[in-house]
Protein backbone atom coordinates (compact mmCIF):
# COMPACT_ATOMS: atom_id res chain seq x y z
CA UNK A 1 0.00 0.00 0.00
CA UNK A 2 1.17 3.52 -0.79
CA UNK A 3 1.92 5.92 2.05
CA UNK A 4 1.35 8.91 -0.22
CA UNK A 5 -1.46 11.25 0.94
CA UNK A 6 -4.68 11.30 -1.04
CA UNK A 7 -6.02 14.75 -1.87
CA UNK A 8 -8.12 16.53 -0.85
CA UNK A 9 -6.75 15.82 2.60
CA UNK A 10 -8.46 16.87 5.83
CA UNK A 11 -6.28 17.45 8.89
CA UNK A 12 -6.82 18.76 12.40
CA UNK A 13 -5.07 22.00 13.35
CA UNK A 14 -5.21 22.26 17.13
CA UNK A 15 -8.43 21.95 19.11
CA UNK A 16 -10.32 24.55 17.05
CA UNK A 17 -8.98 24.28 13.51
CA UNK A 18 -9.40 22.12 10.42
CA UNK A 19 -7.25 22.26 7.30
CA UNK A 20 -8.27 20.99 3.86
CA UNK A 21 -5.33 20.61 1.46
CA UNK A 22 -5.45 19.99 -2.29
CA UNK A 23 -1.76 19.26 -2.87
CA UNK A 24 1.68 19.40 -1.28
CA UNK A 25 3.22 21.90 -3.69
CA UNK A 26 1.95 24.98 -5.48
CA UNK A 27 0.16 24.33 -8.76
CA UNK A 28 -2.58 26.16 -10.61
CA UNK A 29 -5.21 23.44 -9.99
CA UNK A 30 -4.36 23.12 -6.28
CA UNK A 31 -4.48 26.87 -5.75
CA UNK A 32 -7.72 27.13 -7.74
CA UNK A 33 -9.21 24.41 -5.53
CA UNK A 34 -8.14 26.12 -2.30
CA UNK A 35 -9.66 29.44 -3.42
CA UNK A 36 -12.89 27.84 -4.64
CA UNK A 37 -13.25 25.73 -1.49
CA UNK A 38 -12.71 28.79 0.71
CA UNK A 39 -15.45 30.64 -1.20
CA UNK A 40 -17.77 27.66 -0.78
CA UNK A 41 -17.12 27.60 2.97
CA UNK A 42 -17.96 31.29 3.19
CA UNK A 43 -21.24 30.68 1.37
CA UNK A 44 -22.13 27.83 3.75
CA UNK A 45 -21.85 30.21 6.74
CA UNK A 46 -21.91 27.34 9.24
CA UNK A 47 -22.80 28.27 12.82
CA UNK A 48 -19.81 28.21 15.14
CA UNK A 49 -17.22 28.94 12.43
CA UNK A 50 -15.17 31.97 13.41
CA UNK A 51 -12.54 32.26 10.67
CA UNK A 52 -12.00 31.04 7.12
CA UNK A 53 -8.81 31.62 5.15
CA UNK A 54 -6.70 30.06 2.41
CA UNK A 55 -3.03 29.50 1.68
CA UNK A 56 -1.26 28.40 -1.50
CA UNK A 57 -2.96 24.98 -1.66
CA UNK A 58 -5.15 24.74 1.45
CA UNK A 59 -8.27 26.20 3.06
CA UNK A 60 -8.38 26.70 6.83
CA UNK A 61 -11.39 26.84 9.11
CA UNK A 62 -11.33 27.90 12.76
CA UNK A 63 -14.36 27.19 14.93
CA UNK A 64 -15.68 27.58 18.47
CA UNK A 65 -15.62 24.09 20.07
CA UNK A 66 -18.30 25.23 22.52
CA UNK A 67 -20.67 26.11 19.68
CA UNK A 68 -20.18 23.17 17.33
CA UNK A 69 -18.78 19.67 17.83
CA UNK A 70 -15.55 18.78 16.05
CA UNK A 71 -17.04 15.54 14.68
CA UNK A 72 -20.08 17.35 13.28
CA UNK A 73 -17.95 19.95 11.50
CA UNK A 74 -15.57 17.32 10.14
CA UNK A 75 -18.53 15.39 8.68
CA UNK A 76 -19.80 18.55 6.98
CA UNK A 77 -16.35 19.26 5.56
CA UNK A 78 -15.98 15.75 4.18
CA UNK A 79 -19.35 16.08 2.51
CA UNK A 80 -18.34 19.36 0.90
CA UNK A 81 -14.98 17.91 -0.16
CA UNK A 82 -16.76 15.06 -1.95
CA UNK A 83 -19.41 17.25 -3.58
CA UNK A 84 -17.37 18.11 -6.69
CA UNK A 85 -13.95 17.97 -8.35
CA UNK A 86 -12.41 21.02 -6.71
CA UNK A 87 -9.36 20.93 -8.99
CA UNK A 88 -11.75 21.85 -11.83
CA UNK A 89 -13.90 24.28 -9.85
CA UNK A 90 -14.70 27.75 -11.14
CA UNK A 91 -12.86 30.65 -9.57
CA UNK A 92 -14.79 32.76 -7.02
CA UNK A 93 -16.84 35.73 -8.23
CA UNK A 94 -15.84 39.34 -7.58
CA UNK A 95 -12.17 38.98 -8.46
CA UNK A 96 -10.21 41.95 -9.79
CA UNK A 97 -7.53 42.48 -12.43
CA UNK A 98 -4.96 44.99 -11.15
CA UNK A 99 -2.32 46.83 -13.14
CA UNK A 100 0.51 48.07 -10.95
CA UNK A 101 3.14 50.23 -12.69
CA UNK A 102 6.65 48.98 -11.96
CA UNK A 103 10.15 50.35 -12.48
CA UNK A 104 12.48 47.49 -13.36
CA UNK A 105 16.25 47.27 -13.05
CA UNK A 106 18.73 49.97 -12.10
CA UNK A 107 18.65 51.28 -8.55
CA UNK A 108 14.95 50.37 -8.26
CA UNK A 109 15.39 46.73 -9.30
CA UNK A 110 19.05 46.03 -8.59
CA UNK A 111 18.93 42.26 -9.13
CA UNK A 112 17.07 42.15 -12.45
CA UNK A 113 20.25 41.40 -14.42
CA UNK A 114 21.26 38.69 -11.94
CA UNK A 115 17.82 37.08 -12.05
CA UNK A 116 17.86 37.16 -15.86
CA UNK A 117 21.27 35.49 -15.92
CA UNK A 118 20.12 32.70 -13.57
CA UNK A 119 17.07 32.19 -15.82
CA UNK A 120 19.27 32.04 -18.93
CA UNK A 121 17.84 35.21 -20.48
CA UNK A 122 19.11 38.61 -21.49
CA UNK A 123 18.02 41.55 -19.35
CA UNK A 124 15.83 42.80 -22.19
CA UNK A 125 14.15 39.37 -22.55
CA UNK A 126 13.62 39.20 -18.80
CA UNK A 127 12.08 42.65 -18.72
CA UNK A 128 9.66 41.80 -21.53
CA UNK A 129 8.68 38.52 -19.86
CA UNK A 130 8.06 39.98 -16.42
CA UNK A 131 6.27 43.14 -17.53
CA UNK A 132 3.89 41.21 -19.80
CA UNK A 133 3.05 38.33 -17.43
CA UNK A 134 -0.33 38.11 -15.68
CA UNK A 135 -0.20 36.33 -12.35
CA UNK A 136 -2.73 35.33 -9.70
CA UNK A 137 -2.68 36.33 -6.05
CA UNK A 138 -2.28 32.81 -4.68
CA UNK A 139 -2.20 33.85 -1.01
CA UNK A 140 -1.53 36.70 1.41
CA UNK A 141 1.03 36.28 4.16
CA UNK A 142 4.14 37.29 6.08
CA UNK A 143 2.99 40.92 6.52
CA UNK A 144 -0.39 42.71 6.22
CA UNK A 145 -1.62 42.64 2.63
CA UNK A 146 1.59 41.08 1.29
CA UNK A 147 0.81 38.91 -1.75
CA UNK A 148 2.35 35.81 -3.24
CA UNK A 149 1.70 35.82 -6.98
CA UNK A 150 2.14 33.09 -9.56
CA UNK A 151 2.86 31.23 -11.48
CA UNK A 152 5.37 32.91 -13.77
CA UNK A 153 6.56 31.08 -16.92
CA UNK A 154 8.65 27.97 -16.31
CA UNK A 155 11.86 29.82 -17.17
CA UNK A 156 11.46 31.71 -13.87
CA UNK A 157 11.70 28.57 -11.76
CA UNK A 158 14.90 29.95 -10.26
CA UNK A 159 16.00 29.25 -6.67
CA UNK A 160 16.15 31.68 -3.82
CA UNK A 161 19.49 33.27 -3.07
CA UNK A 162 21.88 31.43 -0.79
CA UNK A 163 22.20 34.54 1.40
CA UNK A 164 19.69 37.14 2.50
CA UNK A 165 19.50 40.63 1.10
CA UNK A 166 19.54 42.60 4.38
CA UNK A 167 16.84 45.05 3.34
CA UNK A 168 14.41 45.68 0.50
CA UNK A 169 12.02 48.64 0.68
CA UNK A 170 8.26 48.65 0.91
CA UNK A 171 6.87 48.09 -2.58
CA UNK A 172 9.83 45.97 -3.73
CA UNK A 173 8.91 43.39 -6.40
CA UNK A 174 10.97 40.25 -5.81
CA UNK A 175 10.92 36.84 -7.46
CA UNK A 176 11.92 33.19 -7.05
CA UNK A 177 10.48 29.73 -7.82
CA UNK A 178 8.04 31.07 -10.47
CA UNK A 179 6.51 33.55 -8.03
CA UNK A 180 6.46 37.27 -7.38
CA UNK A 181 6.12 38.86 -3.96
CA UNK A 182 5.49 42.57 -3.37
CA UNK A 183 6.80 43.66 0.02
CA UNK A 184 4.29 45.59 2.08
CA UNK A 185 6.97 46.47 4.65
CA UNK A 186 10.72 46.98 4.62
CA UNK A 187 12.32 43.61 5.35
CA UNK A 188 15.16 41.20 4.49
CA UNK A 189 14.60 38.63 1.76
CA UNK A 190 16.18 35.71 -0.02
CA UNK A 191 14.28 36.52 -3.22
CA UNK A 192 15.81 38.67 -5.98
CA UNK A 193 14.72 42.31 -6.11
CA UNK A 194 13.85 43.02 -9.76
CA UNK A 195 11.52 46.04 -9.61
CA UNK A 196 9.79 48.65 -7.50
CA UNK A 197 6.12 49.54 -7.12
CA UNK A 198 4.42 52.50 -5.39
CA UNK A 199 0.90 51.17 -4.80
CA UNK A 200 -0.03 50.89 -1.10
CA UNK A 201 -0.88 47.29 -0.23
CA UNK A 202 -2.34 47.97 3.21
CA UNK A 203 -4.49 50.85 4.45
CA UNK A 204 -5.50 50.60 8.07
CA UNK A 205 -9.15 51.51 8.59
CA UNK A 206 -10.10 51.47 4.91
CA UNK A 207 -13.27 49.66 3.80
CA UNK A 208 -11.00 47.28 1.89
CA UNK A 209 -7.72 47.48 3.85
CA UNK A 210 -5.81 45.14 1.51
CA UNK A 211 -5.35 46.25 -2.09
CA UNK A 212 -5.10 42.64 -3.34
CA UNK A 213 -7.15 39.59 -2.44
CA UNK A 214 -6.50 35.88 -3.06
CA UNK A 215 -7.76 35.04 -6.55
CA UNK A 216 -7.18 38.53 -7.96
CA UNK A 217 -4.93 38.77 -11.02
CA UNK A 218 -2.12 41.29 -11.46
CA UNK A 219 0.00 42.72 -14.26
CA UNK A 220 3.15 44.78 -13.70
CA UNK A 221 3.61 47.07 -16.74
CA UNK A 222 6.97 48.80 -17.02
CA UNK A 223 7.43 52.51 -16.31
CA UNK A 224 10.61 54.58 -16.33
CA UNK A 225 12.39 55.65 -13.17
CA UNK A 226 11.23 59.20 -13.89
CA UNK A 227 7.60 58.14 -14.21
CA UNK A 228 7.93 56.07 -11.04
CA UNK A 229 9.15 59.12 -9.12
CA UNK A 230 5.97 60.94 -10.13
CA UNK A 231 3.80 57.98 -9.15
CA UNK A 232 5.15 58.11 -5.61
CA UNK A 233 3.06 61.27 -5.09
CA UNK A 234 -0.10 59.46 -6.27
CA UNK A 235 -2.11 57.97 -3.36
CA UNK A 236 -2.79 54.92 -5.57
CA UNK A 237 0.77 54.64 -6.83
CA UNK A 238 -0.63 54.57 -10.37
CA UNK A 239 -2.43 51.28 -9.73
CA UNK A 240 -5.75 50.64 -11.49
CA UNK A 241 -8.18 47.73 -11.42
CA UNK A 242 -11.23 46.31 -13.13
CA UNK A 243 -13.63 43.53 -12.23
CA UNK A 244 -12.93 40.21 -13.92
CA UNK A 245 -15.86 38.71 -15.83
From TrEMBL:
Keyword Cell wall biogenesis/degradation: no
Entry superkingdom: Bacteria
Sorted UniProt keywords: ATP-binding, Hydrolase, Nucleotide-binding
Residue ranges of every copy of the Carboxyltransferase domain listed in the record: 8-212
Protein name stated in the entry: Carboxyltransferase domain-containing protein
Organism: Salipiger mangrovisoli
Amino acid sequence: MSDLPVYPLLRTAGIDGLLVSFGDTLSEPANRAALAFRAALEREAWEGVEEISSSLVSAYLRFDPLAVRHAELEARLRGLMASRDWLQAEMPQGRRLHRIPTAYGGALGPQLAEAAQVAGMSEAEALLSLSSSRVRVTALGFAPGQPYLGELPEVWNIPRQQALTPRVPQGALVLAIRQFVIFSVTAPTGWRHVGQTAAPLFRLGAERPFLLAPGDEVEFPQVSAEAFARLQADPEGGATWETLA
